[in-house]
Protein: GMP synthase [glutamine-hydrolyzing]
Organism: Flexivirga caeni
Amino acid sequence: PVLVVDFGAQYAQLIARRVREAQLYSEVVPHTMPAGEMLAKNPAAIVLSGGPSSVYAEGAPSLDPALLEAGVPVFGICYGFQAMVRALGGSVEHTGLREYGATQAQIEDTGSTLFNGQPAEQSVWMSHGDSASKAPEGLRVTATTPGAAVAAVEDDERKLYGVQWHPEVMHSTFGQRVLENFLLRGAGLAADWTPKAMVEELVDGVREQVGTDRAICALSGGVDSMVAAALVQRAIGDQLTCVFVDHGLLRDGEAEQVREDFVELTGADLVVVDAADRYLTQLAGVTDPERKRKIIGEQFIRIFEQTARDIVADRGDDQHPVKWLVQGTLYPDVVESGGGTGTANIKSHHNVGGLPDDIQFRLVEPLRLLFKDEVRQVGLELGLPEKIVYRQPFPGPGLGIRIVGEVTAERLAILRAADRIAREELTAAGLDREIWQCPVVLLADVRSVGVQGDGRTYGHPIVLRPVSSEDAMTADWTRLPYDVLARISGRITNEVPDVNRVVLDVTSKPPGTIEWE
Ligand code: XMP
């Protein structure tokens, strides 16, 4: 793999994604991992990420020089660049010239490995207080910026490279080209992480992991679980049973769609469990979002366990119990739940952190190292239709975390009706691809006065939360056309009883998460 060493910023994951976009497999490792362990992974190249510290700060993450001496090509970014410059004998100083945001880099050699084929002046995104003031011996300075005399260094001999700016962010105009030049020209790697290769590798991995055991898969209707199921089906065929739990927290038409779009297409074995009443009973009186998630996740597992026993009993084959549970967990879920590199636990996503401790299954998570765009590529490669592959994300706990307040059957009916209208209008306006997803939220514990027909009403607000995002880690609110908003608002307040107000959420993430709970 291409190892991305995480020096503690939010950027490591993004770098890993950019490497994958260059069709090379990448993995994020924490800077606390001993150099020997990193090298034991046999890295094809190493990228040192940015980080929040000054290289001089007390307790600043250090860079083991062994990483630079192993003959593996290394690319340092921002903090990683400074740590590298220092480790090789150059100097990094508090020059007082801080640079934050976009600045112009002057490329000294447009024929160099990193900058080949690029303009001599390019916009780059910076975030640094310290600057490298003297390059280490043997490293050529190939770019400067107003605030950094040494803004890029290269040594083709030892295959060591670095830039002070952040090539991984979109504001660095030629960032991806610089990164690809490092990977393909500097490190001489061949782009081989293609959809076909991913599928082959993942299918092999599942076969090896599961062997001749039986597995079941939680189909949630979302892209991730459907792609995971299709992959595992490709790997182990009818050793897999898909289970669709209708927890009553689904949107209109969802259960039918799973049957039509997925099962009929893949021929997967499907069991549908109607558990709506059970969920409503369990969720009665519960208002805390994390408790809702825990309850929903826990019920899921219990239902699977029962279904697994039923499958074995039905087939009269107790030689082969269901040992494995397939989950469509993605890399960002793993990292956001604190399973990646020690990042803070933001929400316990039910498919990762919310699993009960006494779970009886072992987990198959074939997508756990993939980013969303890769999941889509894998889905298409497996022959799934675009309708599935480009479905907008929908959270496992469903409408249960889109009712702020207690979940009841009446409230679910209200939200479902409002959500259906919003989806219809967004689809009709051709906006499905433009928005990442648009949660529709019922503020069940809030009431406001309105006037409808002849009288005063005292109803509930519906929140529209359209967001644009690349990976759900960050998001911005989508500037929907006013006429589309007006149509949605008009229809919801007219057609949905008990709703007399529609409001628009205009918060980015951060600080707001995409979902309200
Ligand atoms: P947030 O609200 O954390 O959401 O910004 C990021 C993305 O994750 C989805 N989401 C969930 N998915 N179980 C899931 O399977 C959950 O508990 C959960 N919570 C949020 C959300 O819809 C968005 O796409």
